[in-house]
User: Which sequence fits this backbone?
C-alpha cells in the first residue's frame, strides 16, 4: 500500500533529504502499523509524541490503509 | 515596601497608598480584576472618566523564579464591554515589582487632546506633559530612551491607542528596548489613550528583589521549577527552536487551522508559514536574527526568536502562531516576510495582531480587500496609522469590520475575535471561547494542549465529551497562573509534571510565609473567575452571551466535517460553582 508521510521539526533530521513541502511517499506492506512504519523509516519511537492518521490521533499499534496520510510529531507546543 | 500608585489624570495627582487589607495576597490578574470589580462601575462608558486602567505585576514578580515577570493590565474593555485582563512580557512588570509597586491605578481623564507621560522612580511618581503625541511605538520609545536611558523600561501606546481604536494594544519594551511585548487583547490601548496617557517610564534604579520569608526554601523551589522547565521538551527546547509557530503544521494536520475566514480547517500553504520554516530562514539569513530569544529577564523558555531580513538586518520578532495564522491562512497569505512586516506594523501602531489580523480576513470575506493580496493588506495597515476611515474600521477589530462590510461569518464572542483554532475541530477550546469572561480567548483555558498536543492527558478534539470539564479546569488553573505572573508557556510543564506546580506553590509559601496547598491554587482561580463573571453580569452581559456564532453550529468544517455540537446547557455548566441569579 502507498502512504503519504509528513514529519515535524526534529523528526525531519532522521530522514535524509526530507522535503517539507512534499513529505515522503512510500510503498509499504499491507497492514503495517503506525509503530512499524516509524521504525521502518528510522524514527526513534521515544521521540514521537503525537501521530495523526488522516488528521486523527492514532496509537503505535493502529494499522493503516492504502492512501493514508500519516504525520509524526515530537512534543510540540505553543499558544 | 509594597504600595499601590494611584494616578489621577484630571488632577495630575500621583499618590502612593498602602495596600488595603482586602487585596492582601493578590497579584497579577487576581489583583487587576479585583480592583476593577470594586472600583469601576460595571455599566460605565469604557472610554470615559469612570473606567480605570490597572497595571499589576504577579505574585512572583521581582524574585529569582524563572518566567515570573509578566505584567497584567486590567480595565473594562471597550471591545467586549466586560472585564478585561491582558498580560504582557517585557521588562516593565519586573521593574514595577522591584520598585515595590503592586499596582498602578490610572483614573479619570486628561483634557481632550492632551498627552501626558507618567514617570516612576523609587518612591516618586509624576505626570509630565508628553511631546510624543502622534508617534508610533518605536519612534516614541526611541525618544524616551534618548531622554531616560537604557536602564528604564517603557510602556507606550501607538497611534491606534491615540485614536482609541477598540483593538489598540499597550506596548511594553523587551530587554533590548523594543516595544514588542503587548497587552494585546480587548482594546486596553484605547483605554490608555482615552485617559490621555501616552507613556509610562519605569526607572528600576534603587529597586530590589522582594524580601523572602524563607530564602533557602525559595531557592530550592525555584531550582526545581527551573529544572521542570528545562527538562520539559516543549518548555526546554521546542519553543526556543521553533517558537509558537510550530503549531501551524500540527493544526493543519489536525484539520483545525481556520482558513479563508473559518470555512476550511486546512491551508495548502502551511509549510511556508510554519515554525520549521521560521527556524530555517532565521538560520539561513543569520545577521541580526536569532533562534531562541527571551522577551523578559528571567525567561528560560525563550520562545521569541528574531527574524532578520534578506540582508541580515533586524526585521521583526518571530511572529506568534496567532499572528501568522490571522494574516496567513485566515487571509490566504503564505508569505512569511509579508506577515512579519505586518507583525512589526501591529507592534509599532499598537494594535492586537489577533483582532486586526482576523479583521483583515473578515474584510476579505466582505470584499473590502482582495483575498490573499499582500500589497493591499500592507496598504490597509498603513491606513490604521494614518487614521483613514478604512484604517479605523480595521483597527477597531473584527466585530466592527464584519458589521461595516456586511459579513455573515464574523468569528467573535462577546465582541472579541476567535484565535487560531477552529472550535469545530478543537472542541475544548471552543468551550473556552464561548465561556471565558474575557471574550474569545485561547489563553484563558488552553484546551488545545490536551485536545491536540497530548499535554496534560489526551482528549479527542472532535468529540464533545469531557470538553466542558477540561475547559473548566484549565480556566481555573490559568486564572491562577496569570495571578502569579508566570508566562503561560510554563503551563506545559505545569500540566505534565506534578512537581512543577508543587514548586510554584512552594515558592509562594517561601516568599510570603503562607501555607498554601495545590487546592488553594484552585480556590484562587475560582475566586478570580467568580469576580470577573460577576462584573460582567453587573455590566449587563448575561450567560446568554456564552455561545459561539451560529455558523460554527450550523456549518460543517472540512476536512472532518464536524460542527460545534456542545449544547448551550452544557456550556453553561462551565462555571458550575457560580450560582446564576434568575
Ligand atoms: S516564553 Fe516567550 S512569551 Fe514567555 S516570557 Fe519567554 S519569550 Fe516571553
Assistant:
Amino acid at each position: 500500500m502507498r502512504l503519504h508521510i509528513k514529519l515535524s521539526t526534529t523528526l525531519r533530521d532522521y530522514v535524509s533529504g526530507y522535503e517539507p513541502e512534499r513529505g515522503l511517499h512510500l510503498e509499504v506492506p499491507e497492514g503495517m502499523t503506525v509503530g512499524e512504519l516509524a521504525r521502518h523509516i528510522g524514527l526513534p519511537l521515544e521521540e514521537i509524541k503525537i501521530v495523526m492518521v488522516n488528521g486523527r490521533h492514532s496509537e503505535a499499534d493502529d494499522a493503516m490503509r492504502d492512501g493514508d496520510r500519516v504525520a509524526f510529531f515530537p512534543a510540540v507546543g505553543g499558544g | 515596601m509594597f504600595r499601590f500608585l494611584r494616578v489621577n489624570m484630571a488632577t495630575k495627582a500621583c499618590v502612593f497608598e498602602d495596600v488595603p487589607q482586602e487585596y492582601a495576597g493578590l497579584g497579577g490578574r487576581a489583583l487587576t480584576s479585583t480592583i476593577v470589580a470594586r472600583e469601576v462601575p460595571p455599566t460605565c462608558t469604557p472610554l470615559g472618566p469612570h473606567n480605570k486602567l490597572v497595571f499589576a505585576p504577579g505574585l512572583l514578580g521581582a524574585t529569582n523564579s524563572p518566567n515570573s515577570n509578566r505584567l497584567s493590565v486590567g480595565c473594562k474593555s471597550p471591545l467586549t464591554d466586560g472585564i478585561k485582563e491582558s498580560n504582557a512580557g517585557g521588562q516593565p512588570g519586573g521593574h514595577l515589582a522591584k520598585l515595590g509597586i503592586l499596582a498602578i491605578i490610572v483614573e479619570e481623564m486628561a483634557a481632550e487632546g492632551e498627552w501626558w507621560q507618567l514617570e516612576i522612580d523609587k518612591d516618586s511618581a509624576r505626570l509630565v506633559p508628553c511631546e510624543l503625541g502622534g508617534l508610533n511605538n518605536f519612534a516614541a520609545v526611541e525618544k524616551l530612551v534618548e531622554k531616560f536611558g537604557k536602564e528604564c523600561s517603557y510602556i507606550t501606546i501607538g497611534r491606534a491607542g491615540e485614536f482609541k481604536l477598540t483593538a489598540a494594544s499597550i506596548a511594553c519594551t523587551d530587554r533590548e528596548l523594543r516595544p514588542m511585548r503587548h497587552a494585546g487583547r480587548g482594546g486596553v490601548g484605547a483605554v490608555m489613550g482615552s485617559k490621555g496617557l501616552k507613556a509610562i517610564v519605569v526607572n528600576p534604579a534603587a529597586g530590589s528583589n522582594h524580601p523572602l520569608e524563607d530564602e533557602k526554601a525559595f531557592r530550592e523551589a525555584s531550582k526545581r521549577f527551573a529544572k521542570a522547565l528545562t527538562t520539559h521538551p516543549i518548555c526546554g527546547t521546542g519553543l526556543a527552536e521553533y517558537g509558537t509557530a510550530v503549531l501551524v503544521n500540527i493544526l493543519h494536520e489536525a484539520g483545525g487551522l481556520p482558513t479563508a475566514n473559518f470555512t476550511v480547517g486546512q491551508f495548502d500553504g502551511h509549510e511556508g508559514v510554519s515554525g520549521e520554516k521560521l527556524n530555517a530562514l532565521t538560520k539561513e539569513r543569520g545577521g541580526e536574527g536569532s533562534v531562541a530569544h527571551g522577551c523578559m529577564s528571567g525567561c528560560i523558555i525563550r520562545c521569541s526568536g528574531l527574524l532578520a531580513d534578506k540582508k541580515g538586518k533586524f526585521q521583526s520578532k518571530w511572529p506568534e502562531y496567532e499572528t501568522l495564522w490571522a494574516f496567513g491562512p485566515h487571509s490566504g497569505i503564505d508569505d512569511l516576510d509579508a506577515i512579519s512586516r505586518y507583525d512589526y506594523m501591529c507592534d509599532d501602531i499598537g494594535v492586537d495582531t489577533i483582532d486586526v489580523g482576523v479583521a483583515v480576513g473578515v474584510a476579505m470575506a466582505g470584499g473590502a480587500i482582495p483575498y490573499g493580496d499582500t500589497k493591499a493588506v500592507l496598504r490597509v495597515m498603513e491606513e490604521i496609522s494614518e487614521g483613514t476611515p478604512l484604517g479605523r474600521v480595521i483597527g477597531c477589530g473584527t466585530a466592527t469590520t464584519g458589521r461595516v462590510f456586511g459579513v455573515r461569518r464574523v468569528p467573535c464572542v462577546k465582541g472579541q475575535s476567535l484565535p487560531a483554532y477552529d472550535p469545530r475541530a478543537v472542541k475544548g477550546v471552543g468551550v473556552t471561547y464561548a465561556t471565558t469572561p474575557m471574550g474569545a480567548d485561547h489563553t484563558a483555558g488552553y484546551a488545545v494542549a490536551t485536545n491536540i498536543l497530548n499535554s496534560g492527558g489526551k482528549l479527542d478534539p472532535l468529540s464533545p465529551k469531557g470538553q466542558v470539564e477540561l475547559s473548566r479546569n484549565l480556566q481555573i488553573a490559568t486564572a491562577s497562573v496569570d495571578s502569579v505572573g508566570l508566562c503561560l508557556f510554563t503551563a506545559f510543564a505545569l500540566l505534565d509534571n506534578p512537581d512543577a506546580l508543587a514548586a510554584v506553590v512552594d515558592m509562594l509559601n517561601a516568599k510570603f510565609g503562607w501555607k498554601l496547598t495545590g487546592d488553594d491554587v484552585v480556590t484562587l482561580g475560582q475566586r478570580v473567575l467568580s469576580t470577573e463573571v460577576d462584573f460582567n453580569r453587573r455590566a449587563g452581559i448575561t450567560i446568554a452571551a456564552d455561545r459561539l456564532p451560529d455558523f460554527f453550529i450550523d456549518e460543517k468544517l472540512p476536512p472532518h466535517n464536524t460542527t460545534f455540537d456542545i449544547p448551550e446547557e452544557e456550556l453553561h455548566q462551565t462555571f458550575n460553582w457560580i450560582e446564576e441569579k434568575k
